[in-house]
Design a protein that fits this description.
Number of domains: 1
Distance between the termini: 60 Å
Number of strands: 0
Shape: flat
Largest sheet: none
Structural class: mainly alpha
Strand content: under 5%
Helix content: over 70%
Radius of gyration: 20 Å
């Protein structure tokens, strides 16, 4: 049933938020640290585990895919806004670190694009 997919997604979200909040409290930060990432990992692992056991039928998978296709972009966008706000209020060091990582990622694009390309034969 479709509702089982939605329930699985909700469980993963809540478990991720709790885990992220507990991790934040453990390291002395008043907030969620990686809750969305924990939720995504838990969703991936539970989905694979349920499929291996044969407990994930078509309608359940459909409900999960429908809501996860809307859930993932929205949650990632919300996390990105929070990270940008924290970086801007965190001072110059956070801003410089963000710019450095972005530039490094952009410089790696040509290298990564060559990985899957077949080697050309020259005479």
């Amino acid at each position: 049933m479709t509702i089982y997919g939605v329930a699985l997604l909700a469980f993963c979200f809540l478990a991720g938020k709790v885990t992220g909040t507990l991790l934040g409290a453990a390291i002395g930060i008043n907030g969620d640290v990686g809750g969305v990432g924990f939720a995504m990992l838990l969703l991936i692992f539970l989905n694979a585990w349920l499929k291996r056991r044969g407990w994930m039928d078509g309608p359940t998978t459909g409900g999960l895919l429908f809501w996860s296709s809307m859930y993932i972009p929205i949650i990632v966008a919300m996390a990105a806004v929070q990270n940008a706000t924290a970086a801007l209020s965190g001072g110059w060091l956070a801003l410089i670190a963000g710019v450095a990582v972005t530039v490094a990622a952009l410089l790696l694009v040509p290298l990564l694009s060559r990985i899957g390309r077949p080697q050309s034969t020259r005479p």
